[in-house]
UniProtKB/TrEMBL annotation:
Family: Belongs to the short-chain dehydrogenases/reductases (SDR) family.
Molecular function GO labels: oxidoreductase activity
Species assigned in the record: Purpureocillium lilacinum
Key words, A-Z: Oxidoreductase
Highest classification ranks of the organism: Eukaryota, Fungi, Dikarya, Ascomycota, Pezizomycotina
Protein name: Uncharacterized protein
PANTHER family per the UniProt record, alphabetical: 3-PHENYLPROPIONATE-DIHYDRODIOL_CINNAMIC ACID-DIHYDRODIOL DEHYDROGENASE, DEHYDROGENASE/REDUCTASE (SDR FAMILY) MEMBER 4
Alphabetical list of Pfam families matching this protein: adh_short_C2
Length: 260
């Protein structure tokens, strides 16, 4: 049997709270796997891992910095400096600004939409008023860094928000449900100036074919979904056929969520 390898040797990892408790144990484990580590804490000596953190030439593999984790500007500065250490790259999945933008759109925008629509739904002549929120399976199973961060977090929040509204709006005669698409093969679009803008899925076909093959291997129905699959689910939930369904998440993923 081959020995386990984390394949972290030579990589660069940044750890907050790295001088005690769980943070310290994480730094030690990473150094044990051959990684280079930038770590921070409120109070730093700088030699906390000297016995573990030198390479063959005696150069340090762990660099500590005193940082108040509650100070956003200090954290930003630490990350900027840390990105240059060890001549390694460091990917920040989402800035504070992108979280704020996503929250404004995905949560506050959704709340405003539902609150504005509710009085009109109540006064409509239909006996079955319904709202459908389109979330994403990424909010329930964030399996890849490309869909982590604000996107996955706020997509889960949307589904939770919909359940809360289902409880509140039910007595008013308004149903609300969530459609949760999995891997959907989307198409690009023609922009107003006539140029073609490919979808992220189309771009991934060219740049990340192995990633897409791995995703496909996790789908029991052995195909990616399309926009029509999601639309059909939404139409069902909006229709009187679903008149006794409220507060549910309808997963449209070809069975991928049962593959794990």
């Amino acid at each position: 049997m081959a020995a386990f390898s984390s394949q972290l040797r030579g990589s660069h990892i940044m750890v907050t709270g790295g001088t005690k408790g769980i943070g310290k144990a994480i730094v030690e484990a990473l150094l044990g796997e051959g990684a280079n580590v930038s770590y921070c804490a409120r109070s730093i000596r700088g030699d906390e891992f000297a016995s573990l953190a030198n390479d063959a030439a005696g150069a340090p593999r762990a660099i500590g910095t005193a940082v108040d984790i509650g100070d956003a500007s200090a954290i930003r500065a630490w990350v900027e400096v840390g990105a240059q250490e060890f001549a390694a790259s460091f990917a920040v999945e989402a800035s504070c600004e992108s979280w704020q933008r996503s929250f404004q759109a995905d949560i506050l925008g959704l709340i405003a939409l539902i609150d504005t629509a509710t009085p009109h739904l109540q006064s409509s002549t239909s006996s079955d008023a319904s709202i459908v929120v389109v979330s994403s399976l990424a909010g329930f199973e964030a399996r890849h860094p490309a869909i982590a961060g604000p996107y996955s977090t706020l997509k889960r929040a949307q589904a939770t928000l919909a359940k809360d509204y289902a409880r509140k709006l039910g007595p008013l005669g308004v149903r609300i449900n969530t459609v949760v698409p999995g891997a959907i093969e989307t198409r690009g679009q023609t922009l107003p100036d006539g140029t073609w803008q490919p979808s992220r899925f189309e771009e991934a076909k060219k740049t990340k074919p192995e990633f897409l093959r791995g995703m496909l291997d996790c789908i029991p129905l052995a195909r990616f979904g399309d926009a029509e699959d999601v639309a059909s689910a939404a139409v069902f939930l909006l229709s009187p056929l679903a008149r006794y369904i409220s507060g549910t998440n309808l997963i449209v993923d070809g069975g991928s969520s049962i593959a794990f």
